[in-house]
Amino acid sequence: MRLSELSVRKEDLMRDREFASIGIARESKPKSLVAIRTPKDLELINQSSSVSCIIVRKDSLKEMPSNLGILLSDDPEATLFEIHNHLASNANFYPRGKGNEISRSAKIHPTAFIAENGVRIGSSCDIGPRAAIMENSVLEDNVKLGPGTVIGGETVRSYRKGAQVIPVVSTGGVQLRKGVEIHANCSVDRATFGGYTEIGEHSRFDNMVSVSQNSKLGRRNLVTACSVIGENVVMGNDVWVGPNATVSDEVHIGDSAFVTLGAVVVEDVPPHKKVSGNYAIDHQKFIEFIKKIR
Question: Which domains does the chain have, with CATH numbers?
Answer without folding.
Answer: 3-87 (3.40.1390.10), 101-289 (2.160.10.10)
